[in-house]
Amino acid sequence: MARHKSADIRNIALCGHAGAGKTILAEAMLLKAKSIGRLGSIADGSTVSDHEKEEKEHRYSLNSSVMHLSWADKEINLIDTPGQVDFQGGMIGGLAAADCAVVCVNAMRGIELMTRKAWDLAGRYGLGRIIAINRLDGENVNVQEILAGIRKAFGHKCVPFVTNQGEGESLSGVKPVLVDAPEGEAAALRQSAIENAVEADDALMEKYLESGEVSPEELAAVMPKAILSGAVVPVFMTAAEKGVGVAELLDFVAAYAPSPLLSTRKLVDADSGAETRLEAREDGPALAQVFKVVSDPHVGKLCYIRVFSGKLESKSLIGTTSAGKGEKLTQLFAAQGEKREDVQEAAAGDIVGVAKVENLHIGDTLYGSGSLRLEKMPFPHPMTGLAVAPKNRGDEQKMGSNLHRLCEEDPTFTFERSERTGEQVISGLGQVHLDVMLSRLKSRYGMELDTRPPKIPYLETVTKEAEGSYRHKKQSGGAGQFGEVHLRIKPNARGAGFEFVNAIVGGVISGPFIPSVEKGVRKALERGPVAGFPLVDVVVELFFGKEHPVDSKDIAFQIAGEMGFREIVEGCKPVMLEPIVNLEIAFPAQYFGDISGDISSRRGRPTGTDQMGEMQVLKAQVPLAEVTDYGSTIKAITQGEGSYSMELSHYEPVPSNIAQQVREKARAMQESGKTSAKTSARM
Length: 683
What we know:
Layout: E1 9-16, H1 22-32, H2 53-58, E2 65-71, E3 74-80, H3 88-96, E4 100-106, H4 113-125, E5 128-134, H5 143-154, E6 158-160, H6 168-172, H7 185-198, H8 202-211, H9 216-229, E7 233-237, H10 246-256, E8 266-269, E9 275-277, E10 287-296, E11 300-309, E12 311-313, E13 317-320, E14 326-328, E15 332-336, E16 339-343, E17 345-347, E18 351-355, E19 365-367, E20 372-374, E21 384-390, H11 396-409, E22 414-417, E23 424-428, H12 431-445, E24 449-452, E25 459-461, E26 466-474, E27 481-491, E28 498-502, H13 514-525, E29 538-546, H14 554-569, E30 575-588, H15 592-601, E31 605-612, E32 615-623, H16 630-637, E33 643-653, H17 656-682
């Protein structure tokens, strides 16, 4: 039998920018509920949430952490998510498992970059949202300014609820809202909250418009639906380290946060591709999703799962999207940070873990029957890279297997061999991200790597049309070779890739030799004519040719295709392309001039600005080659107060002066490689 009924479960993700006090708020909630005996400390690494070695060293969350507590006859699952931009993968996974996001705002700093990202992602998932203005006991806190900034950024649906909790009145200076108030600000805010809430129910709104009244019972009944729809965004005030406002927030979550049975996540039909919405049912077919993976060298692989419908049972067989077959779930467990407690069954809405299921991955759907699957999570593509090699020779295979284990934990961290540069490259969301992953590699598996900046993945393309012919003829004893091709080369749309067009008429080249020509052309594409980078976005049309009844064969037309392309492409004005990234930078407004000037010096083009409370946001498109070291730059310019995110946008031609520098460097490296090869051969 399941531990809890679905209607009694609340799934809450604490999210927001680093420094908003999410981990301490989770700790204070656990303490209020008597799930722990004392308040842990980030400084001494004693919190339930931040239990990993690197988290204790850095003193902030690097992964999402799952906890649970009981309050007012409800079972509340807490997911503490990271607030650093480099570790937003944990936030993305954590929010995917929740029904309501508690967006934490630092009372001393207001809305920041990850506050906005958390808000937007919660909306994308269709979660209810509650705002917790935390650290009210900090210096120079002006709650009215923060509230004004929140309502400006997120709308007037954001309404303060209970704000005079004990000492909280002196901290916040705001009157209680959803209690009787004869006049003034509290009455106006209460009225606003009621009007917003009744919008979520047509019948109740009609009644309210007619009578101007709504009973407390009616308001309580409609509130979860109103929160889930975004009609109401309750705002709470907390000072977690002092315990201020924590009980009131828990009371509200237990009473009014949406239950798992109200979840309406997007589903995709695996057979038809059609999209629909989840109808969560305790007695429905099993439907769950993996949102977190930990690869522990001592206990093996741990997968954390949110059950959306039906139930999961220990030692049962379940279908998975990765394996495409039934997987046996070993003993399920409930998590309290790093501690685990065995459970036999998990109902719709519950969050559990399972060990030693190697074929489960983050984002996988677990299903009992049918073709409906939960949508994949929107992880950003990692853009900061390092070329790596093991310090000890012969450890290449060990390096690969251990790095792939780390990739399993974090979809924003990748390890692959670059086909364009030939390097083994790890990539992440920033330099700090990569430093942490290298630290984990050393602490968990005892492995250290040599690192260096990776080569920029330049490409090449053509800018005009040209045509020509090439005859390959070999008569040097034995069987001969003959193949003649006439090719027309022209630019393709940017990003459209390579297209081969067979325009042969009259059978001048036999059908079996057409793929041979294409194979030769594809080989030529691997090294472009400008600096040897892959050539893309080109259309090659084979429109004429000749063959010999005896000497024509596959290899002859491969060579003709390759060499013909290499000769003709020189007349197509080939150019180099460089990757352009979308850069989003958040920083205190006083640094705007320095930031914008630095971006201009990096050949960047501003694309927009935004305001997040006291923080300015600059959006720009910049060549990747110019921002490989941007983490240290933004830290230096803003005295550590700025942050940024980066994702690939598109490719553009490289300016001629830059292209010349890259070309010379590439040729020098090629010559160096040839010299090294000759030296090795002589030795």
